[in-house]
Structure formats: C-alpha cells, structure tokens
Amino acid sequence: MGNCNFASEQNQDELQTYITPRLFNFLYVIGRGGFGKVWKVEHKKTKQLYAMKEMSKAKIITKKSINSVMNERYLLSTLKNPFIVNMVWAFQDRENLYLVMDLLGGGDLRYHIGRQKKFTEEQTKFFIACLVQALEYLHYNSILHRDVKPENLVLDDQGYLRLTDLGVARIWKPDNQSDTSGTPGYMAPEVMCRQVHGVAADYYAVGVITYECMLGKRPYIGRTRKELRDQIIARQVQVRKSEIPHGWSLEAADFINKTIQRKPQNRLGLNGPDEVKEHPWLRDFPWQKLENRELESPFLPKSEDNFDAKQMEPRDKQDTNPELIQQNQLLLRRNSVQELFQGYEYEKEIQQHSNNFQTISGNNSTAVTARYTQSNTYAN
C-alpha cells in the first residue's frame, strides 16, 4: 500500500497502513540509475536496513519508460527467490516512485571487477553458479531478464551473488524483435540486431561475464552500439588455448566459447538452464548445497561498505535548475499524469509473494525458448 492520496478511486478506509519516505532514515547513496538513486535506508521503527530505489516520475515520463517501471513492480510482486534481490514494498508520492528491496552489503560485481580486475576460476564458477540459479528461476517462469551485467549482480555478506533490476525484463512472447533494451557489451547479437530472442540471450551475457572474470576485459569493446555490432559481425571471438590464464581449465574456456556464440542456435543455453548445467564445467557443481547455502564462497567481500564513496550525498540535495523544477512541478500536478502510475503500491505483509507463479508458456524451460531463423548477419 502507499500514500497515493491523489488517486480518487482509492478507498482510504481500506488502507491499514501508509508506507511513506518519512518511515525511513536515508543513510547514503549506494547506486544510481537512469531515473534516480538507490539509497541505503533504515526503517525507523524496526531498525531493519533496506535498499530503496527512488525514481523520479518526471524522468520516467521524459524517457518514456512508464511501462518498464510498472512492469518491474509487477514482476517483482510475483517473484521470490534466494538468488534474486526481492521486493518488500513499493509506494509512491507525487514526485517519485519507491522500491524497497533486500539490502545486500557485499557490493555489486562491477565494483569488485574494478578492484580485482580478474578472478580465479573457483571464484568465477561460484558467481556463475549463483547467476545460473537466478536465471533458471526466471526462465522457468517465462521471464527474460535481458540486462544481465556486473552492475546488476550484487553480493551478500557471505559472498553469494544475487540478480537484480528487472527494469527491462519481459515475459517471453514469440514476436519480441522490437524489444531491444539492454546494455551494449552484454547484449546478445540477436537482440542488438532486432531479431526474435529467447533465453539464450541471457546466457550470452553469462558468457561475457565469465570471459571478463577470466581475462579482465569483455570480448567485444566499443563506445557505441554500432561499434559493438560491427565488431560482432566482423568476427567471432573465442578464447584460444594460449590465452587461458594459469589456474584456469579448458572446460572453463569451452564454457565461455559456447555461451558467446553469435548465432543463438549454436549457443549453450538455447534449450534452457538444464543444458547449461550439463556443460562439463558445471556438471559436477554441488547445486543442492548451493541452494541450501551450505557452500563457503571462495570470494568474501570486505566487511565495510562495498560501494563507491564518491556517490555519497545528502538526500536534500536537489536539482539547481529552477526552470526544470518548475516544469516538473507543473507536469506532476496533473491528475492525468498521476493516474499513469496507478497501482504501483505493494506491501509484502498484505500481498504475499507467490512461489507458484502461473506462466503463459508453462513451467518448462524449452517452452520459453524462442524459435530462431538462420541469418547471414552472423555468417562467419
């Protein structure tokens, strides 16, 4: 539930509690996104710590992303899994949308890549196993994440990795070639080239991340989407035997080479998570012990806060452009604008998560695997 007092159709008598920003102490910024900031917050009454995503409605409207933020809230309300960052509350006021999520103190993988540059094979395999578990859960529920990247992989204090940010995630549908959202560098070629895509698109990003952990760089590097696309079309990157670092196995290199295949029909993961888990690199991994959190992570984040301290700033710091502030205030004063965000509220205690999420394609990984056609775009 939320403090959406401008929604005339909302029956205020039915609201037993109001979730508002005033219930939280805003401690400091731990991340940034396209619409605002992610705060480390403390619930004043319970002293429980959370991560709170604060998103500007004006920015959401300007970037034509209303459907994306509403879709993210909907998906999170149907999901609960130990390998994703779960939602606790969603609410809004006149200026912002708020998502209150699990707080993970280990920092995101991008932060640690910046500090470590590379990881050992044992560390990387543990990260990838956690990620595969998260994707298995999403894919069995017919959901494509479509933005798997180090910034969206967050570690808890025990070094277990969780997947977050469902802003561009979608329930799979057969004709999704127009859905091209994602992050260049991790975006699958079929998505970049506006072709139909399925679960294999997420596993392409898994391969890129594994490559990055092994070699300290991505397989394709470019400043723009066009530069990346031109590189991908020009050649198929593969890890050569001579490039494998000391301490890494041939199986790891083979896993990378099969997940970063340009043609999705040749890519490991086309037929879902079972295929990925059966690869020799992961075949003997103790999945049940991972699920039960009985494994000790080979990478433990430092005990203090794992974030870029340069992000810290007081919450009352505002945009100093008075003209822009006035424009936003006028925009958000309209009831027709506020109605665009109707139904954003969610409260975990009232609307319990469902572990039996009914999918449009059935509970089978192959049911959400897209059908691909041969394309000369990726011809060697």
Automatic annotation (TrEMBL):
Catalytic activity: L-seryl-[protein] + ATP = O-phospho-L-seryl-[protein] + ADP + H(+); L-threonyl-[protein] + ATP = O-phospho-L-threonyl-[protein] + ADP + H(+)
Coiled coil start-end: none
Region (Disordered): 298-322
A GO BP annotation: intracellular signal transduction
Gene Ontology molecular function: ATP binding; protein serine/threonine kinase activity
InterPro entries (UniProt xref): AGC-kinase_C, Kinase-like_dom_sf, Prot_kinase_dom, Protein_kinase_ATP_BS, Ser/Thr_kinase_AS, Ser_Thr_kinase_AGC
Keywords, comma-separated and alphabetical: ATP-binding, Kinase, Nucleotide-binding, Serine/threonine-protein kinase, Transferase
Top-level taxon of the source organism: Eukaryota
Family, per entry: Belongs to the protein kinase superfamily.
UniProt protein name: non-specific serine/threonine protein kinase
Upper taxonomic lineage: Eukaryota, Sar, Alveolata, Ciliophora, Intramacronucleata
